[in-house]
Amino acid sequence: MNxxxxxxxxxxxxxxxxxxxxxxxxxxxxxxxxxxxxWNSDAxxxxxxxxxxxxxxxxxxxxxxxxxxxxxxxxxxxxxxAIEESSVVAAAAKSAKFWATxxxxxxxxxxxEKIGQVHFIFNGNRDKLRSFFNDIQEExxxxxxxxxxxxxxxxxGIRNIELRDLSEKLQGYFQLHVTFETxxxxxxxxxxxxxxxxxxxxxxxxxxxxxxxxxxSNIEVVMSxxxxxxxxxxxxxxxxxxxxxxxxxKIEDPEAFAEKFVxxxxxxxxxxxxxxxxxxxxxxxxxxxxxxxxxxxRAVEAGVHAYAARNGQYSSLSHAEVKDGIFRFWMDVxxxxxxxxxxxxxxxxxxxxxxxxxxxxxxxxMQIVAAVxxxxxxxxxxxxxxxGIQEGHMKMHLNNILNQFQANDTERQQVKEHFKNxxxxxxxxxxxxxxxxxx
Length: 439
Description:
The chain is built from 15 helices and ten strands.
């Protein structure tokens, strides 16, 4: 079967889904019905969704859940989380409730610096290049005035431009390393527009610089682009309490629990195989709030994992200690987020999520997201060091198994009653369901 198609983006939406249905499905009508069943009944709302990306054929839904009782810097938050993994929202909510009676989460924005770079090749005299840069630095910044005017009026803009010499790693490779403050905007388009203007000014000024030879004046700009590695756009989240206060239904011996918890974190600090899964749990919480608030979770993921490897080995983002009878658990995490621009002003569910969070600033959102990530990590480590991760996870996964086998209401009730005090596994649930149906 020839599956290539010419001019797909120019087809109407109806033509696109007809081509998909006819090309890939033996029963095209069923595929068409499924695709259309996920369209929004409000035509104007569907049109809005269609225009977010190219070649839209339908919507792909994720559940939007709520984790209440997050006390962050003495303020109570109800946090929206968009995620499909069954136990994440439940774990975050339990962790939030646990810490709400123990002082809550304390968060601090350490800095909000964002980074962009103009990458270029220069094969001339490096001392001349440094002198050239020093001479034009103010003109470089001034050339972006029309772009940065509104951002500067809000207290943002370009913080600094630095010439970096990386020619020992790649022949002739230099960069303008530019730092930005973008206030409540994530600022990707703003940063990239500034960088492209800086690149143009760099080339223009070089072509007229009298100390350069003709070859030196021809600076080759390779690319101008923001970086999603933002090690100085950093927020700290932490929880702490007396070790004796850790006691609850799952934690009968708080001293033993605290010691084991700290050991589990230290294992993640030194063992990359564990650290990846450990940090993935943190990102379960972070990504779900980032997605719900219309931010770029892929950029956040990339930046966070780069930060986790900043010392040459991938390691735990979180840390724990017991000192003078106090249990402390904390994390520093880079988060470049925005609450204005992009989807935040377009997507109705993003607007809803931000309203539930009481319309936070970018700094507020950084702190909320970091707290949820730490809460998720605490919940996972608490389970791992007490009952094990699968007990809670598989009970939450039970609904997915029942849906997979199209259990009716009576079967659901009987299965859930049976597994109240039994180990939940896919095989065990299927076997019990089959026995029920035999009867």
